[in-house]
Amino acid sequence: MQKLQFNKGLIDFIKMSPTPFHAVDSMGAVLDKYNFSLISEADAWSLKKGGRYYVIRDDSSIIAFIMGKKALPETGIRMAGAHTDSPCLRIKPQPEIIKHSFFQLGVEVYGGALLNPWFDRDLSIAGRVAYLDSYNTIQMALIDFKEPVAFIPSLAIHFDREANNNKSINPQEELLPVMAQVYDKPVSDFRTMLLTRLKNQYPDCGAAEVLDYEMNLYDIQDPCFSGMNREFISGARLDNLLSCYIAMMSLVQTRGDVTSLLVCNNHEEVGSASRSGAQGPFLQSVVERICPVLEDRARTIEKSMMISCDDAHGLHPNYPSKYDSRHAPVLNKGPVIKINANNRYASDSKTTALFRYLCNKAGIPVQDFVMRSDMSCGSTIGPITSTKLGLKTVDAGVPILGMHSIRELAGAKDSYYLYKVLCEYYQ
Which GO terms describe its cellular component (predicted)? Predict the structure, then answer.
């Protein structure tokens, strides 16, 4: 697969995935095309050598794996991990607000979002709804309004002359999106709006009532190539749908001699403490079913490895003093190994050596990121997964700018570079 073709697929994937639920649905569609079979956690599994399978939990986390032809205790499992969620604004359960003729929605900040970029954007709404059908059965469905239906207007500078000097945002008061102008007209509640949309999107669903929902606002602008030479990819949710797509497309290309696995968890941006998050039992449960014999499983884990794929901080040209100059990755200069002495990243010399070897073998440049010693860094699913399963792990990813903004920037070469390295790893 060539770089341009690969990146076009990446852009399409992100465009179709405004929420973790949609991301997992999109991944399932891709895996189906590559002859992976959907299996349920509720069923008995009968896994065959060479078989390709995937399993979904809570519609928002997914594990795909290929059963290798060689014995597990001899080879271990080659794993890669990423996360499906991104910082965003989530709509509250009773969100309806009417103020001065405007119909607005109450929202809650999900994860460590940069808030300023959410102003003055055309926003849409997407997520998962639970509804009651005509048979009084609770059903689940994904909804995407797709069109711009909300807007968070900035306050004009005439009313806040210090806005460019020292602007803080009160998320309770200042992040309320404008949905409509109502005057004296009766207003439908948000659940009724969702019911209407549900019936339009699924005419045969028989929906009678929306019981509950998990709905997010998102920027309607599509991801795209940018830069004078189209050397960048800009878009929402590059952290971390970019890694999900790269790892998935690497997995589907593998021959399957060695058992290979991809896990994409939800809730990384809020600590991973959920049944579908990295702190939950999802991956451990699947590994136990892949290798049910305890003695064999212990030997398998010892020979296994995880590449935790999450975006890295690229060097921002306007703020070079925020970086350790010796460990400041540049966009389009290759994937990044992330290292932290306090185990915020799970990399150690053994796993970083292997990643460097893979990069060298694939003919790919590689970079390092270490946070300044007078600043603290974030973390990933890497240390959590390593701790829970005892896996040797390296944290690595594509460098980006604008991390946790409503729109982020990556190098078009780097996505393809990481894809080539992960192909080498799985093979």
Answer: cytoplasm
